[in-house]
Amino acid sequence: MQIYATFESSNYIELAITKLEEKGIKDIFAVPLDNRTEERKIFDTIHQSDGVTFVGKGMGLAVIFSVIGASRGFVLEWGPIYWGLIGAISGFALGVLIDLYIYKVYKKKKRVLKGKNSEIILIIDCDESQGEVVEGVLWEHLALGLAKIKNNQEQTNRIIENV
């Protein structure tokens, strides 16, 4: 049986490894992850989207500003069509700038504080009888996530015979 667990980089992972070694489990492999150092792209491409849109407020403000511009355009020199278009463009630009500011300032702070990042993956190879003990030790030492894969020896032998 293989057990995979993710941890933050802290003393708890060392304590978990020590406790597992005391229980007789010797096949332990720890892999540190490299965290992303560059900023994520703000604007989406055709092939990749993060679900964040900047045009929602822009479209709403474009409608509001174009209606106001068109109605005021009847008394202004250029007329309602030009002032409606000027209002729509300025409302859209203002809405996009507001969304961009909210995303860059407020959401960035929330993303940084939001959750804990997995920094180390711990891979443990043990017998199925030891699986519950290993799982308990890992949860006790603040694992962020855990997965178990049971090795089926008959299935492995069939795969090897077919190759």
Looking at the structure, the CATH topology of the largest domain is Alpha-Beta Plaits
Q: What percent of the residues sit in helical stretches (DSSP H or I)? A: 40-55%
CATH class of the largest domain: Alpha Beta
Number of strands: 4
- Name the beta content range: 5-15%
User: Which CATH architecture of the largest domain is right?
Assistant: 2-Layer Sandwich
Tally of helical runs: 5
H and E order: EHEHHEHEH
**Number of separate structural domains:** 2
Distance between the termini: 23 Å
Largest sheet: 4 strands, antiparallel
Based on CA atoms alone, the radius of gyration comes out at 28 Å
Name the poorly predicted regions. none
Structural class: alpha+beta
In short:
Helices cover 52% and strands 13% of the residues.
Task: Give your account of this protein's structure.
This protein is an alpha+beta fold and 163 residues long. It has two domains: 77 residues, Alpha-Beta Plaits; 59 residues, no CATH class. 52% of the residues lie in helices and 13% in strands. The radius of gyration is 28 Å and the shape is rod-shaped. The mean pLDDT is 81.
Lay out the secondary structure.
Elements: E1 2-7, H1 11-22, E2 28-32, H2 56-73, H3 80-114, E3 120-125, H4 131-140, E4 145-149, H5 153-162
Antiparallel strand pairs: 1-3, 1-4, 2-3
Helix pairs in contact: 1-4, 2-3
Transmembrane segments: 54-75, 81-103
Keywords: Membrane, Transmembrane, Transmembrane helix
What descriptive keywords fit this protein?
single chain, 163 residues, alpha+beta, Alpha-Beta Plaits, 2 domains, rod-shaped
